[in-house]
Design brief:
Largest sheet: 6 strands, mixed
Order of helices and strands: EEEEEEEEEE
Helix content: under 10%
Distance between the termini: 40 Å
Number of helices: 0
Strand content: over 45%
Number of strands: 10
Strand order of the largest sheet: 2-10-9-4-5-6
Radius of gyration: 13 Å
Shape: globular
Structural class: mainly beta
Length: 114
């Protein structure tokens, strides 16, 4: 059974940093493109970044230069380092296998506010 557990969210002031983690189990983690997604209040969930099994990242324009996605295949864990955070980065952050219809986990709440 696939299980993806997000952690590391919190409250931070604008300009601050957060790092969120995604621990995977029940999948052959090293073979999948993985993604970070977020859902802002009253908005649809959106893709933020993806990373290939070999570690090649891609980002949406709104986070380029500020966010860094990474993964440790041996630990079956993925990370999202978020710097220079803005209030519009506020939302629940989810991880998932990119391109698959896999159930969503609970996510982790990140709030950027002064």
């Amino acid at each position: 059974q696939v299980q993806l557990v997000e952690s590391g969210g919190g409250l931070v002031q604008p300009g601050g940093s957060l790092r969120v983690s995604c621990a995977a189990s029940g999948i052959s983690f090293r073979t999948y493109v993985m993604g970070w997604y977020r859902q802002a209040p009253a908005k649809q969930r959106e893709l933020v970044a993806t990373i290939t099994p070999g570690g090649v990242p891609r980002y949406v324009d709104s986070v380029k230069g500020r966010f860094t996605i990474s993964r440790d295949n041996a630990k079956m864990t993925m990370y999202l380092q978020m710097n220079s955070l803005k209030p519009e980065d506020t939302g629940v952050y989810f991880c998932n296998i990119h391109g698959y219809n896999n159930p969503w986990g609970q996510g982790t709440q990140d709030t950027v506010s002064s």
